[in-house]
Write a structure and sequence with these properties.
about 280 residues; alpha/beta
């Protein structure tokens, strides 16, 4: 059972029933002052997410977001990103992943190989990134490479002209094979971002088939439209590839019951740490 619960602007579970969690940028601000405190805070925030999600039966959260924002990048990432420093992003992302896993929830690194330079909102249109491969490797790819051992990742609906000038990462065999699987070295379960986003073109069934053909293991469709869901199921069938099955099994083998955690103590300590920022 998967959810997109980041905190800040992106929250599917909201007050008054659920906690109003801070946006990721808050932890990046603290990291510039005290990286150790920021790492602990990011861990606690994620562990608190897991304490809310796991009792509901939700065992996958689409975090951490590892995009590195760049000048000219669209605000759709904005304060959802930890920092413009890829090292800080990697450190804080690792803390978030650890907090979720300790709470019985699997993390999803996103949006691989990086959405931070995109000058458009991929919910609405297809962004194109013209940075050189060297620049991408120096910044955008770094956090993903650092955390490539994690079990799940989500693609970016973004064209990277240095690799493939025609197709976005989600439907690009070149980006997935050459960048995601090779340069970054991610061998976990790869899922598409939401197929209903306007960055992708064509019927949804065609989008789904193209994503799997490019190398995604599974596809996400998140708008709940039943005719679209039916069209996707008809287009892709019901059997995962052997590699996708292997990756899925490895991912969910890493899922375990939550450790002991005092929610009130965690909240108090998180507030104390964030007050330093």
């Amino acid at each position: 059972m998967l959810i997109d619960q980041e905190g800040g602007r992106v929250a599917r579970l909201t007050p008054p029933e659920f906690r109003a969690a801070p946006a990721a940028q808050i932890f990046g601000v603290l990291a510039a002052i005290n990286l150790k405190a920021a790492r602990e805070a990011a861990y606690l925030n994620a562990r608190l997410f897991a304490a809310e999600l796991e009792p509901l039966g939700i065992n996958v959260d689409c975090l951490p977001l590892l995009d590195v924002p760049a000048p000219g990048g669209h605000g759709i990432i904005g304060d959802r990103a930890f920092s413009a420093d890829p090292i800080a992003v990697a450190v804080l992302g690792a803390a978030v992943a650890e907090g979720l896993i300790d709470g019985g929830v699997l993390p999803v690194i996103k949006h691989i190989p990086g959405h931070g330079r995109a000058g458009a909102d991929s919910h609405l249109e297809l962004p194109t990134v013209d940075a050189s491969l060297d620049d991408l490797e120096d910044t955008d790819f770094k956090p993903f490479k650092s955390l490539c051992h994690l079990p799940l990742a989500m693609t970016a609906h973004v064209i990277y002209t240095a690799v493939d000038s025609e197709y976005p990462a989600t439907t690009s065999t070149q980006v997935i094979a050459k960048v995601v699987r090779s340069v970054i070295g991610f061998d976990g379960l790869l899922m598409s971002d939401d197929l209903s986003m306007s960055a992708l073109s064509g019927p949804v069934g065609q989008r789904a088939a193209a994503s799997l053909h490019a190398g995604c293991d599974i596809v996400l469709h998140c708008n709940g439209d039943m005719p679209e869901m039916t069209a996707i199921a008809e287009a892709v069938g019901y059997n995962m590839t052997s590699n996708a099955q292997r990756r899925a099994s490895l991912a969910f083998d890493s899922l375990h019951p939550p450790d002991n955690f005092d929610r009130d103590e965690g909240l108090s300590r998180l507030d104390e740490l964030l007050a330093q920022g």
